[in-house]
Write a structure and sequence with these properties.
By secondary structure, the chain is mainly alpha-helical. It has 8 helices and no strands.
Amino acid sequence: MLTSALIAGFAAGLLAALLHFAFVQKLILLGEEYETGALVHFNGVAVAAHADDHDHATTEAPAADLAATEAPAATETDGHSHEHAAAEEGSAFSRNALTSLFFGLAYVGYGLVLVAGYGLAQAFGNVVTLREGLLWGIAGYAAFQLAPAMGLEPELPGTMAADLAARQIWWVGTAICTAGGLALLGYGRGVASVVGAVALLAIPHVIGAPELESYSGVAPPELASTFAARTLGVGLIVWSALGALSGWIWSRPQ
């Protein structure tokens, strides 16, 4: 059980880190720039609105605004520039290393949850192989990412969110209810199981996730929506890989 979780978890964590660096991290870094005020969401909007009154060169105003935010760097001396660049490289390396480690540990934890489920299923006479593991992985994705995201979308830096404790409670309850509902759908028998599954799947969303009273985020909504979509897409790929690999290792002869 531990071997399956460790190997599959670290492999899935590595895949998650690679996909994160390729598709998600640049959005987070951009969101942090809006959060700190280095970039402003509405820069260039007024220029675009009055484009008819100027020549076509004004369509490049957002790029000019972005360049303007980077102008202070040009005032540094060469020595300070090299030191600053070296510090940024070291910071980026540390950040990427910690991100990779976090993904590895997180998916090992998720792998332990999956293989514990495999053991429970096996105790009731259900054999878990690569195919069943893939389905378990997709179910895990639905429970831990997709269903909670219906009320609490992946949060980009620079966007606002409700009270942290309330969100955590709702997230945990949604994950438990969704996992229980999917288990009843997969292994339950009879009408009562179906009714119970539907009830468990619906309860968190009937209650509803914590909501903001007003919206005041500084990151562009287009950026936040892209971040949410990519996060959920990456999650599906990684959870599927985690389930398939852990199921394959689980089914191999000891």
